């Protein structure tokens, strides 16, 4: 009987690492022992968790700034403990979230021109405080704006509205969460836990939908939610063999397939491509990347090939589909962190003879435009898949409005930003919204492990101003009570000198920032030269004193003689 090989257009996918000058070198990569990837990539920048004295920090580099990274390169340094996980926002390439051992989750907005000076704690646009122990997992919602899921060592998960900085619900879990993954439209998410259980939750209210035992081993397991409501997990058997399994969301009693990989002890992280149905498996401490294809034919998960190198990987980042080079038939790109401080870039390509756009390799993929706001998603009754775009003409980033800080809120609160920009300056808030610009949060206690979310502890100052100046219509003169403050006089229409029509404030600000960076760098050089001069003077004095002591001792010897 002749053996018939299964046909697949991804069978000959191969990886070719770029040259060292096209990678990122001399990076102090984090030496934390936690099972994390330490790297996050988007079409604009690459972020890498680094070692930092006295706290946690990570490095953000534009994709084009390759080569050697200077030791004094500016960092995002705002955590008091080591940074454990970082994730770029899928709807804004300038926004990144980080979590740390200091129990805090912080959201940062990277300047359009890149980081010129170190970003500190005061520069965070949102601080999400609710966990009582270290936070080591965060995930952004795939289709709704400003929704972030977090898990910590306090056995709790929070769903955050990043725009208002509030927790929409809180879940208590039986044990520590190892990994989390949203489904395609974000209405559900799956978790793997230290108690060896695979659980599926409802995103809107946090209710537990299904659960079942996942892998028998006690080492960390990972999960990926596939597009067709299947769940892919990696873990360990009872004999500590690494394995993967495929589950049907509607029936978790038995896996659709489960296969052993090898006997290594590094945790395997799955990277799932929703467009091609491929899964890349990258093991911590491994020197290779395996890739598989998931289909509807048994055994459902088909081995394709592997990429192998000499150096072991400490971390890994994966580029979203919209950041790939479609002209070279690139279907994936990995950023591999090595122990020697190198971030190696590995494009994965499919060989094709034609230079034309390959429609079968690049179906429409998820864009950076959200399909729902946080309020629309949490209100229920409306689900929406991610908005798709075609890569035939290349990826063009959507224009993001320049954000401005709102009192008692942050720059990601788009609903309040629209009111500030388009509506009257002193208009009263809509009756369906709370005073802080975010919808009221209703407590749901349907799940036995649920706990109420922390309530807001402040009222925006903008609300007080709104009620104070809500009307400018003239009123009849009445005997007014004694006021404890004086009403401020309206500011004149034009204050100060008149600026020329071609005045560019943004350019002036950029020039000032760049000049400060240059001055700071020169100050460091001056300090280093002064230290060298002091060291040289001290060594000269020591040498002179040694010569004088030698002469004195010689004279004493002659006298004694």
UniProtKB/TrEMBL annotation:
<dbReference type="InterPro" id="IPR015943">
    <property type="entry name" value="WD40/YVTN_repeat-like_dom_sf"/>
</dbReference>
<dbReference type="Pfam" id="PF00400">
    <property type="entry name" value="WD40"/>
</dbReference>
<keyword id="KW-0175">Coiled coil</keyword>
<dbReference type="GO" id="GO:0051015">
    <property type="term" value="F:actin filament binding"/>
</dbReference>
<protein>
    <recommendedName>
        <fullName>Coronin</fullName>
    </recommendedName>
</protein>
<dbReference type="Pfam" id="PF16300">
    <property type="entry name" value="WD40_4"/>
</dbReference>
<keyword id="KW-0677">Repeat</keyword>
<keyword id="KW-0009">Actin-binding</keyword>
<dbReference type="InterPro" id="IPR019775">
    <property type="entry name" value="WD40_repeat_CS"/>
</dbReference>
<dbReference type="InterPro" id="IPR015505">
    <property type="entry name" value="Coronin"/>
</dbReference>
<feature type="compositionally biased region" description="Low complexity">
    <location>
        <begin position="451"/>
        <end position="463"/>
    </location>
</feature>
<feature type="domain" description="DUF1899">
    <location>
        <begin position="2"/>
        <end position="67"/>
    </location>
</feature>
<feature type="region of interest" description="Disordered">
    <location>
        <begin position="536"/>
        <end position="561"/>
    </location>
</feature>
<keyword id="KW-0853">WD repeat</keyword>
<feature type="compositionally biased region" description="Polar residues">
    <location>
        <begin position="536"/>
        <end position="548"/>
    </location>
</feature>
<dbReference type="InterPro" id="IPR001680">
    <property type="entry name" value="WD40_rpt"/>
</dbReference>
<dbReference type="GO" id="GO:0007015">
    <property type="term" value="P:actin filament organization"/>
</dbReference>
<dbReference type="Pfam" id="PF08953">
    <property type="entry name" value="DUF1899"/>
</dbReference>
<feature type="region of interest" description="Disordered">
    <location>
        <begin position="399"/>
        <end position="499"/>
    </location>
</feature>
<comment type="similarity">
    <text>Belongs to the WD repeat coronin family.</text>
</comment>
<dbReference type="InterPro" id="IPR015048">
    <property type="entry name" value="DUF1899"/>
</dbReference>
<dbReference type="InterPro" id="IPR036322">
    <property type="entry name" value="WD40_repeat_dom_sf"/>
</dbReference>
<feature type="repeat" description="WD">
    <location>
        <begin position="128"/>
        <end position="170"/>
    </location>
</feature>
<feature type="repeat" description="WD">
    <location>
        <begin position="76"/>
        <end position="118"/>
    </location>
</feature>
């Amino acid at each position: 009987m002749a053996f018939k090989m299964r046909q697949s257009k991804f069978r000959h996918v191969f990886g070719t690492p770029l040259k060292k000058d096209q990678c990122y070198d001399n990076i102090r990569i984090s030496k934390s022992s936690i099972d994390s990837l330490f790297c996050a990539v988007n079409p604009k920048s690459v972020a890498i968790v680094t070692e930092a004295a006295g706290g946690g920090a990570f490095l953000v580099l534009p994709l084009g700034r390759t080569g050697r990274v200077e030791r004094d390169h500016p960092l995002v340094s705002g955590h008091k403990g080591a940074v454990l996980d970082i994730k770029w926002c899928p709807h804004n390439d300038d926004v990144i979230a980080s979590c740390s051992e200091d129990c805090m989750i912080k959201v940062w907005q990277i300047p359009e021109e890149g980081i010129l000076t170190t970003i500190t704690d005061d520069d965070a646009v949102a601080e999400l405080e609710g966990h009582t122990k270290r936070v080591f997992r965060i995930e952004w919602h795939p289709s709704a704006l400003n929704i972030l899921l977090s898990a910590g060592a306090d056995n709790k998960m929070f769903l955050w509205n990043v725009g208002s900085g509030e927790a929409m619900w809180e879940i208590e879990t039986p044990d520590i969460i190892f990994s989390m993954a949203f489904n395609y439209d974000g209405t559900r998410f799956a978790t793997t836990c230290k108690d060896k259980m695979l659980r599926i939750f409802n995103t809107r209210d946090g209710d537990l939908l299904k659960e079942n035992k996942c892998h028998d081993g006690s080492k960390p397991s990972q999960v990926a939610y596939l597009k067709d409501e299947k769940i892919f997990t990696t873990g360990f058997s009872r004999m500590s063999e690494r394995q993967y399994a495929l589950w049907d969301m509607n029936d978790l009693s038995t896996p659709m397939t489960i296969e052993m990989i090898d006997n290594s002890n590094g945790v395997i992280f799955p990277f799932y491509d929703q467009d091609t149905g491929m899964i890349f498996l990258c093991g911590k401490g491994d020197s290779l990347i395996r890739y598989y294809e998931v289909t509807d034919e048994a055994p459902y998960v088909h081995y394709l090939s592997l990429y192998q190198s000499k150096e072991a990987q400490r971390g890994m980042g994966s580029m979203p589909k919209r950041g790939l080079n479609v002209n070279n038939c690139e279907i994936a790109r990995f950023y591999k962190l090595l122990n020697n401080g190198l971030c190696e870039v590995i494009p994965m390509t499919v060989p094709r003879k034609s230079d034309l756009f390959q429609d079968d390799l690049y179906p429409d993929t998820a864009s950076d435009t959200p399909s729902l706001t946080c309020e629309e998603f949490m209100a229920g009754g409306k689900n929406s898949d991610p908005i798709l775009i075609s890569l035939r003409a290349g990826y063009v980033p959507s224009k993001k409005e320049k954000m401005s800080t709102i009192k008692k809120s942050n720059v990601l609160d788009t609903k309040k930003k629209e009111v500030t920009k388009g509506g009257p300056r002193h208009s009263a808030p809509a009756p369906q919204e709370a005073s802080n610009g975010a919808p009221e949060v209703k407590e749901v206690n349907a799940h036995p492990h649920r706990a109420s979310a922390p309530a807001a502890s402040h009222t925006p100052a903008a609300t007080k101003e709104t009620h104070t100046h809500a009307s400018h219509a003239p009123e009849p003169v009445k005997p007014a009570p004694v006021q404890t403050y004086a009403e401020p006089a309206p500011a004149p229409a034009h204050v100060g000198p008149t600026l020329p029509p071609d005045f560019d404030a943004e350019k002036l600000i950029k020039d000032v920032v760049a000049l400060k960076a240059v001055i700071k760098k020169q100050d460091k050089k001056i300090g280093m030269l002064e230290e060298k001069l002091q060291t040289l003077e001290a060594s000269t004095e020591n040498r002179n004193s040694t010569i004088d002591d030698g002469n004195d001792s010689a004279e004493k010897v002659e006298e004694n003689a």
